[in-house]
Amino acid sequence: MDAESLEAASRPTMITSPDNTQLKLIRGLARKKERDKSGLFAAEGEDLVEAARLAGWEPEVLLRSGEDVEPDLLDRVSALGSGSRVIGVYRQRFSQPGGERSVYLHGAGDPGNVGTVIRCAHALADGPVVLGPGCADPFSPKAVRAAMGSTFARPPAKAGFEELAGTTIALHAGAENSLAEEMAGAEPPVALCLGGEREGLPPGVLEAATARARIPVRDDGPESLNVAMAATIGLYELARRMAPDA
Amino acid sequence: MDAESLEAASRPTMITSPDNTQLKLIRGLARKKERDKSGLFAAEGEDLVEAARLAGWEPEVLLRSGEDVEPDLLDRVSALGSGSRVIGVYRQRFSQPGGERSVYLHGAGDPGNVGTVIRCAHALADGPVVLGPGCADPFSPKAVRAAMGSTFARPPAKAGFEELAGTTIALHAGAENSLAEEMAGAEPPVALCLGGEREGLPPGVLEAATARARIPVRDDGPESLNVAMAATIGLYELARRMAPDA
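ok -> structure tokens follow
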């Protein structure tokens, strides 16, 4: 055997059938039911797979286009339809609520928003995003993509409002005081609480929170900010006050 | 004729053919080429159509599911696949750059980000979002949806960096000073300048800007924020300093 044949022989066989078990698994993980059943999720693209590696996550399956699988077949199992060159399958992990600064989401049903908040908390907070009832699955393809790798660096937590420790500040468009005013006297740890786009926080959470605060927007502005923007502003304000040198 | 027959006779005919011209027009507007050619765009859903109405925009076409068109046919021309109950077609409009506080985007290719920044500027700034070279079309279905109606209230502007007036602050992860530091002495009007997710701002814009500033993120945080989050934080900081009572 010459060197080239030797290399070819030691290389794993390229997947050429759409009925391959690993491809079927990835296709299935686009559905919540399959993710729940298997406890797995898929991450598409080199950036996400690299983020997983840097955060020390071992893939259960890793398929590279043109190396492990025919490019066309990998394209066809992509949930994002973006022609990913690599797809990794990982085991879902959740953190515990905690940290001096964190975010609690309640009824945030849009996966893109959930992912963006995970990204934002990774940048500005020391605690994980806590997902309460009615939130989108943080391991859905859209949420994982929006989080841009922060899912691996800072996995979200699953918990109810009553499990939050310390000061809870409910962001609420109808609140009397601004975020800056309410945060001036807030004792850490602080959890910012945000509701879904339309419904906002349920009355029980609004009442039980230590304080309620609004983000000042222009009178001629929109009625509300989306939950990802509101969380971004809240975390920035929190970081500015609690860790001005960070 | 009894009252019911009279009402039915005065009602416009329900569209029952997928080859209807108006349905074809809406389907075409999912493509940039058709939007450019016609100067039109589509907005899907009651919230957006209501936002257009409130901002005084007359639709060129307005199709309501079950009233003007068979529900199934309207579903099939939806670019967002969300089963919209109404789709409106409007003529594209652009604003002129201006205002005391505005955002300039350069190479922001993601339509969702462009739409989110339009929303955010509507909430926190008095000037329009200025779209420089390489930005996603603000009238694409995804951008219009992400802007949640702010496209109508505050249409974006199209202009190059050199057309911006006053102080230009380039948001740049590698900048020495923080946003808060650079903004302390900034003379209005101020335009925040942001580049695309990967490339950032081109060197020419970075150099030509009045100042460069970074948004402080945690050392163990992600390498960058997405452009919509960065713009949100920038506009919040700007509003906080320049219009603290807004």
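Residues 227-242 of chain A form the longest helix (16 residues).
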